[in-house]
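Quick question, first post here. What does this chain look like in 3D?
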Amino acid sequence: MEGYTPGALQARFPYMFPLEGEERRRAYTFYRGWMQPLALACEDIDKLLGMDKRAFYWTRLREKVGAPSLGYRMEGQARVATNIHRPTDVVRHAGESAERHAPVALAINERILQLEVELRSRCIVCGALSEICNDRGPWASLCPAHRAEDDGPDASMGSVWESARTHEEGRK
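> Answer (accepted):
Ran it through. Tokens below.
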């Protein structure tokens, strides 16, 4: 699992990443520090789905105000709970009755909620423990070492964000 790149993850689970071209570029942004937990979650989801993949796929893997913004679709199944992410807290809100959903759908929903909570405290660059804050510019989930790399509020953390993104040109 260690060392997954976006391309390796998408090759391992092509059904989870069906979007192409511009649509893919807008939907999937991979951060180096979040790759291992994401890869583990994809492995877990694949096992939960078993042979029936239920047309599961990610519709969004992004960051918003320092927190993960994850979306998925699964044939015939809807999310029954969601985490509402604000820069300083996570609040769980129940949606539809869980009784209307298959146990596998509930288990996948729970695994994705766990991933969202875990990523909130992981540095997007290195995966170390972090805290979401905006003390040096935009909201970001960065460990103290990577927060210190910022050149100050006028730099808008450009170099840190670029170093966090994973690219297929040999970078992890």
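The two ends are 13 Å apart (CA to CA).
Helices lie at 6-12, 21-27, 35-49, 103-120, 144-148, 158-164.
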